[in-house]
Amino acid sequence: MFEKVQALLAEQLDISADKITPESEVVKDLGADSLDVVELLMQLEEEFGITLPDSEMENLKTVQDIVNMMEKLGK
Question: What pTM was estimated for this model as a whole?
């Protein structure tokens, strides 16, 4: 799951996947803005056929937070 999120982030933000670690903060470390985050989450929802609860979106700070949320919803 991490590799999939990593690949989507790298494509979305036009950065090398090597720079993306589970501990990377999406906004602070990777330079994403709020629109980037919304687009990424919409892409994840479409790709995995899930719906991310709005209440959880503000808790997604690191790449690992996103991975954890995807794994929780994917079960």
Answer: 0.87
Roughly how many angstroms between the first and final C-alpha of the chain, as a whole number? Answer: 12
Residue 49 in tokens: 């056929």
pLDDT tens figures, 30-46: 999 989 988 988 998 89
Supply φ then ψ for residue 25, to 5 degrees: -85, 125
**Active-site residue identified among 18, 33, 36, 54:** 33
Specify whether 33 is catalytic.
yes
Ramachandran assignment for 15, one of left (phi > 0), alpha (psi -120 to 50 degrees), beta (any other): beta
